[in-house]
């Protein structure tokens, strides 16, 4: 018989009496439920003795027994757990609600969904103010990370701390990450003093919990395809362009190189004799259409009240887009937590990894694929490798030229003891050694190629067989002692920390090689000729010691103040300048806690302000203050014996400045945190200003001193920027969803630089310029006809080269002296990315889940790369498809030439065509969907008989093709000779036992 039901009604409101719309009301133990309407009201039929569960995001859940009543007035309390959540802040934790600096956190689950092999790539687009740049999509290729732009001309890499110990992003796999916290301003990062000027990334790895016993396995297999892939023209295009270039460069007729008959009959002849009449597609010959990678992840977790252990193992393997290209890595981590007594606890963590990267020995197939012209055949008719063009047969080098293999081994550990003498005080001692070893073996083989007449030569860059072996060994030791004290007295909350840290790093490398091997099947040094053996080696070290402290105080969770101070001593500087002190001060005011604040729309509002100073001691040279001796070898001729002897020489190359010291960055910042509409809408905004002083520069130095110019503390740089994050979360019935987005921007302007004005290629660095600002010529279109070379009075316009003609670029005489030269170059704007953005969408309905993330750049002045469109590279190379039908030509009408995108084709005046100018600048903005995830969790009743707790099957699509202004076939994130960025189609399964 069906159980009797009763009808209940009610209203759900918040603490102020405002109705809560969309609150979930569910009968416990069933799927029977409803949601509140626009007035917060609900009605539901339930069992007479049922318990109902009321929930709404941002509020604490409630359970209510319905026995004996049928009408309910329910008030939900705000969930303050998000403010009470502990956040890693360096040498300890702090309540999220007490933070006064600019801190952003990412959950490990959000990084895992990216299904990337390296953690640095998974970070892209996730955090406002964090720029992640890739220029290579090959397996094992990492990315460059910048936190709030650049602040120095030296090292701008952020400091990475893993479980409290200095490390690297790529030494951690995404599946091991519990949280990643980015300390973006001085208020939060000053606790790391001399190493924090470029920001700090804190990573905590996953640990077991009490009562948790599980065995998890995850497998992924992916098919990779290029997001964009340029193409070249065929042999007919190539011959036509050869004729075009020769005609433009002075030939008497438009078919001086290849006759019209030759061009017209070539493909017909190719069908009969492809060896004498080639039409080779070198791109398809050298490169694959797709590739693949796979990943296995295993996690074993066990936790009791005394011992908790989590062990994880990860295996990755990926192939490249050509032969002899792969990356393989195995990594493991074991985190152990011991509760020895109520006042003593300990952690012992171990981690290791081994990676293996394989590449062709000398050949870059990406370069050769787009260089080689279709006019040249890869093979002779008998199957031997053809010489192609003067031995330039990239396919022969790829398949027979040997490999370059690099093995990387890393092992690390951390031992930590925490003593709690009384409630609130924790004393910690940590020792963490880390060891890394790299072994490289490059065995490059001589590759014979043949002419049609049977004679033989050797391929370019593979003329001899040689073996090169390298050994790089480095290790570090970190030891820390610090104490944390936290307590709450009524309305007062205090968090204090004081500590000491020491760090020692040593490295050593060794190289050996032999050449002119007679055998190419035994890659070992002992069989190489002793007359052709070479070796090299080196070593170095650096160290620092630090003392530091932090004090955080909060009154009624309304008024907050935080101070940090750290003194660092670095071995890079002389004793007189070794120590530097860095500080920060920040305040916060939770305005929404004031009695006069009306919480109609705004539930939480915090204002923040900070000032602080950070340092940079990563300045390249290990001991720049010392008069270092450089050793070398010279061949000395003895006239009496008429012999040449190799002798060792030594000299001091750089003058030593003993007063060289830290670069310092002073940062000012203000921020705002908001939660609105019953905590469903969240907003965080920050504005900052950074001033870097004492940057190391190479200034003028008198030549008569006999030394090369040393570096000195003499430069300034100023960076302004802002970043915002916006999020919305809600639940509607069985549907939950989260939406978030971030946007950031910055500008770095150079200040005083002494007498330095550096021009490097098309960039300039001088006082008042942007960091790496474009410095090139201004242009005014093309000379469409020969008449355009003269003004109305008949005077010839100044040109960049004496032989400029119609079809060449028209350069502007900025100086007005009637000559186009370096004096006419001008600054043409910022070269760095502007308006960086990213976002995430995630939702779930019953057993289904969906996720989408995106990322991009709103504006960037990008210089068109000549390799994208330059025909006949090295005067024999291929013709990019981009060029075809888009260049100025004598065959065109005047109207067609006015619509042409590219200048005349020439090889005698490439200076005019490819010299850096605003003609080639364009907006490199782009938008990319980073990830799309579809997941389904199998019903538990299907798994109960096979002892499986949960199984989830998912499909990920990563790095979809970008929407951009970049030329067709080129991805906005990849270099011209780098491996493609890949769109990956990932099928995965996660099983929990």
Write structural notes for this entry.
The protein has 993 residues and is mainly β. 8% of the residues lie in helices and 48% in strands. It contains 12 helices and 51 strands. The strands form 11 sheets. The chain has a 22-stranded antiparallel β-barrel. A 5-stranded mixed sheet has the order 10-15-16-13-14. Helix 5 (235-248) packs antiparallel against helix 6. The model has no long low-confidence stretch (mean pLDDT 90).
Descriptive labels:
single chain; 993 residues; mainly beta; 22-stranded antiparallel beta barrel; five-stranded mixed β-sheet; 48% strand
Total strands: the figure is 51
Q: What spatial form do the alpha-carbon principal axes imply?
A: globular
**Helix fraction?**
under 10%
Strand content: over 45%
Averaged pLDDT, please? 90
Major sheet, described briefly? 22 strands, antiparallel, barrel
Q: Which class do the helix and strand fractions yield?
A: mainly beta
Low-confidence stretches: none
Q: Round the Cα radius of gyration to an integer and report it.
A: 33 Å
Cα(first) to Cα(last) distance is 38 Å
- Individual helix count: 12
Offer a quick outline of the entry.
The protein has 993 residues and is mainly beta.
Q: What's the layout of helices and strands?
A:
Blueprint lengths: L5 E8 L10 E4 L5 E3 L5 E6 L4 E5 L6 E4 L5 E5 L5 H4 L1 E3 L4 E3 L7 E5 H5 L6 H4 L7 E4 L10 E4 L11 E4 L2 E2 L10 E7 L2 H4 L10 E6 L7 E14 L8 H14 L11 H13 L9 H5 L4 E13 L3 E13 L6 E14 L4 E17 L4 H7 L22 H7 L1 E21 L2 E20 L3 E3 L5 E3 L7 E24 L2 E24 L17 E23 L3 E12 L8 E12 L11 E15 L12 E10 L4 E10 L10 E14 L4 E18 L12 E22 L2 E16 L7 E3 L2 E3 L7 E4 L2 E4 L26 E3 L14 E2 L6 E12 L2 E12 L1 E3 L30 H5 L11 H5 L6 E3 L2 E12 L2 H4 L6 E9 L4 E2 L17 E11 L1
Helix pairs in contact: 5-6
